[in-house]
Amino acid sequence: MKILVVNAGSSSLKYQFIDTDTNVVFAKGLCERIGIEGSLINHKQLLKSIGTTETAPMKNHADAMKLVVKYLTDAEYGCIADMNEIDAIGHRVVHGGAYFSESILLSDDVLAKLELCRDFAPLHTEAHLMGIKGCLEAMPEKPQVLVFDTAFHQSMAPDAYIYALPYEYYEKYGIRRYGAHGTSHRYVSAEMAKLLDKPVEETKIITCHLGNGSSITAVKGGKVMDTSMGFTPLAGVEMGTRCGDIDPAIVPYVMEKENLTPDQVNTVMNKKSGFLGVSGVSSDARDLDTAIKEGSANSERAQLAINILVHQIKKFIGSYAAVMNGVDAIVFTAGIGENNAALRELVCSNMEYLGVEFDKAANATARGVMMKISTDNSKVAVYVIPTNEELVIAKDTAAIVAAL
Ligand code: AMP
After folding, report:
1. How far is residue 22's CA from residue 4's CA, in Å, rounded to a whole number?
2. pLDDT over 70 for what percent of the chain?
3. Residues of the chain with pLDDT > 90: what percent?
4. Is 283 in the pocket of ligand 1 (CB under 6 A)?
5. Which atom of ligand 1 is nearest to the CA of 288?
6. Beta carbon of 210 within 6 Å of any ligand 1 atom
7. What pLDDT score does 130 carry?
8. Which ranges constitute the DSSP H helices of 325-359?
9. What is the full DSSP assignment across 152-209?
10. What confidence score (pLDDT) does residue 121 get?
11. Closest residue CA from atom 20 of ligand 1
């Protein structure tokens, strides 16, 4: 099947056009500044390795979708003869609350439940609704499937997802752990399980999705047992600009000392913390590495920002091995996990207690490709596995549409 995968943001829309029979990506692109002056589309035809950028008015997501279809069917930059060759559309959805534990075909009922998810991720949900409604307007007859970042984590038991707050907050407001990056954790854990010489039901895998946003997940028998992100994607390990887990009492303390409103303290924790806040250099791990190498003014704090993340990842790995009663494999993925060999080495050093025998030489060469970075004798396999959320979305969409 040929599936159009859509990732709608509030003023942007990323897309990939994927053949799920061959896993080949025919085309991909990005519409930017939707609804704003100067909107533009950047489209790449990957079979011919050509691309183009056009400034074109897009007053809403429906206009953006019409432009995407125009480029997919374009004589020079296109990859299909006409719109009939698009079998279905698969949407990435950031938050499905507790309503969605798997991917689902769009219907009025599904749309109504998605509206309720605004409470958990207001900006993202609003953007997804615009993307879905844009597709309904531009291609009303195409089936649409929603694939949720939270769905994979819905298999957690209450011990892992209930916070030790008054229980009525869970009942009244749905305050619980939901997790994030579920589509990525699902993909890399499934790829890892295939490499292990045992039935999936017996596998114990820890997946480390380390990018601008980061989360770590314990996957036992193919199901999530625990994950580091929580009610929101602010929880867990240190990130580019997010603080991760902190003592909750710090929040009212800082609000009082700095005279901050709830919105302002939220901004500090989401946008001014993490790598950026600790180092004073940047939110990007590459900039921290450069600062450390050059020994610039903030190099010590840049190193501290990296060391904090390493320390926290080690703690999550240790605790997840504890709750799973062991671990067969550890996987690194996303921007930092796939590309930052130095950080992977720091994380996996001194982990002999767990049965990790790290292969430094293999690790040094592993960059953006699937690779084993533990020795053949290692009791715990350690791998770099590039994530592919778009492929999961396309495959789920094709499977649901094929069964109609
Ligand atoms: P992501 O959110 O998955 O795009 O990851 C972004 C993070 O990954 C940033 O901190 C980048 O510094 C890091 N990253 C992305 N690509 C590379 C690369 N080629 N080499 C080193 N770090 C990278």
Report:
1. 15
2. 100
3. 96
4. no
5. 12
6. no
7. 93
8. 334-339, 341-348
9. GGGG--HHHH--SS-HHHHHHH--S---S-HHHHHHHHHHHHHHSSS-GGG-EEEEEE
10. 86
11. 339
- Please write the tens of the pLDDT for every residue from 30-66: 999 999 999 999 999 999 999 999 999 999 999 999 9
Rounded to whole angstroms, the Cα distance separating 167 from 215 reads 25
Domains in the chain: boundaries? 2-148, 197-384
Helix (H, G, I), strand (E, B), or coil: what is residue 337? helix
Let me know if the fold of 2-148 is the same as that of 197-384: yes
Which pLDDT tens digit goes with each residue over 294-319? 998 899 999 999 999 999 999 999 99
Pocket of ligand 1 contains residue 286 by CB under 6 Å:
yes
Amino acid identity for residue 335 in this structure: G
The residue whose CB lies within 8 Å of the most ligand 1 atoms, and thus the one to mutate among 286, 287, 310, is 286
Q: Is the CB of 334 under 6 A from ligand 1?
A: yes
* Structure confidence at residue 366 (pLDDT): 87
Q: How is residue 207 written in tokens?
A: 């997946």
> Given strand 329-333, what is the order of strands in its sheet?
223-227, 214-220, 204-210, 329-333, 381-384, 371-372
Residue 336 Cα to ligand 1 middle (Å): 5
Give residue 188 CA to ligand 1 midpoint distance, Å.
17
Fold of 197-384: Nucleotidyltransferase; domain 5 (3.30.420)
What mean pLDDT is reported for the chain?
96
Domain 2-148 coded CATH 3.30.420.40: yes
pTM of the model: 0.95
Amino acid symbol at 46 = L
Q: Whose CA is nearest to atom 16 of ligand 1?
A: 335
pLDDT in tens, 93-109: 999 999 999 999 999 99
| Both tokens assigned to 236 | 């867990």
Q: Is residue 309 within 6 Å of ligand 1 at its C-beta? A: no
On the question of pLDDT at 343 being above 90, the answer is yes
